[in-house]
From TrEMBL:
Transmembrane segments: none annotated. Residues 105-170, 275-339 form the Cupin type-2 domain. Gene3D superfamilies: Jelly Rolls. Keywords: Dioxygenase, Oxidoreductase. The keyword Disulfide bond does not apply. GO terms for molecular function: dioxygenase activity. InterPro entries: Cupin_2 (IPR013096), GDO-like (IPR047183), RmlC-like_jellyroll (IPR014710), RmlC_Cupin_sf (IPR011051). This is Cupin domain-containing protein. It comes from the Bacteria. It comes from Flavobacterium arcticum. SUPFAM superfamilies: RmlC-like cupins (SSF51182).
Amino acid sequence: METKHDDSVIGRARVQDTPELEAYYKELENLGAGALWTVANDIEPWEPRPSSIPMLWKYDDLRSLVIKSSELVTPEQAGRRVVYLVNDKRKDVSAAVGWLYTGIQVTRPGESTPAHKHKAAALRFIMEGEGGYTVVDGNRITLEVNDFVITPNSTWHEHGVAEDGKTCIWQDGLDIPLINALEANDYAVLDGKQELTAPENFSPLVYGGVGLVPADQEWDKPYSPLFKYSWKKVYPALLEAAQVHEGSPFDGILMQYTNPATGGHVMQTMGASMQLLRAGEHTKAHKHTGSFVYQCAKGKGYSIIGGKRFDWKERDIFCVPSWVYHEHVNLSETEDACLFSFNDLPVITSLGLYQEKTHPDGYQTVE
Ligand code: 1HN
């Protein structure tokens, strides 16, 4: 069936203002009411309408300011010593894109953060350092560069770096703008440190096998029992897949981090992926609903997002708003490139809001 995107058609609001109508609108306004047809076309876009813009945050520009924060304030003073990345069009809700927040957190050797929990879910992607750890619901988990860890909704969490470690920097991702928009967030601080309830690295050692989950352990929580996805296992898995799998024309070898107990997303509100772009690969352009924050984990290249070119290399962070065309290019002719990303797809798909469109010309023209 043909659809028309034209505000002059029957079915769209097209009422001309008259003095009588204006007086009528005023009367409604005084009663806390309004005539739907004055706003209908605005609140019913023909297609998904992002308010965020594509943005790139260069790590070379930000790194020294992130380090500087560790000279200016302590984790105890700051609660979380983080430089957050904010979309030019989402400053009002502290979002990097859509309803997703991201920031860069620094922790020095011997430091640790206060333990706390909140209804917002969090995840982390490790950028640099040694000896970092996180404690999630009594599970202490050691962290290495390019590891991905989750802190699900309402789990107690705290982080730190061993005395003999090296300053750790990681990217935090949270659904905090979404949970605040839903007016459902909360926050609690623990008096002291969490009590450890399992041996170190219990979750990754027990649940991080090749699709193996322990037959004797019941897991009924709505998030993954695997709290850490090690780069040491993730990268070889991508290379193996790339030997035999063409991958997606839009994303190359795109692998989703999954809950090993269900095969579903790692958490209820946020999903995450690692993708590999082969040497020289230039993916085709498409757009879809869902907001995405990327970090380049390996290599260098660029993405064209909404007709604009954004060059990235290791540790750079960028975003793709909902319903904006994007395509990715690996600029190396010899090395692969890897992009970590997290998104709000669990929300989008579970509410039946996912849609996708391929670019009519295959690729975008750069503005
Ligand atoms: C949070 O709990 C952490 O635990 C980092 O490291 C960043 C940003 C907003 C709200 C909670 C953390 C956060 C956060």
